[in-house]
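I am still learning, so would you mind making up any protein sequence you like and the tokens describing how it folds?
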Amino acid sequence: MNSIILQAETLNLPEIFAFKMKGKKVEIFENGDAIIINPIKSPIDHACGILKSDGNEGDRFMKRKILEKELENGK
């Protein structure tokens, strides 16, 4: 299953759909005989959607970085 992500404005959609998707990125993919267009709220949300997560990776990352800096500075 191939997909592409692009700005909704680059598509020539009927006004009712174009209005709802204005300013958003969309993912277009083929599913059998159907072509599906899904709006993406955030590229980060989209990328995290394919990974199992408890939602706290950012906090753990920042704690690791703070600990690394403290170890570098000898504290």
User: Anything to note?
Assistant: The CA atoms of residues 40 and 46 lie 7 Å apart. The chain has one domain: 3-72.
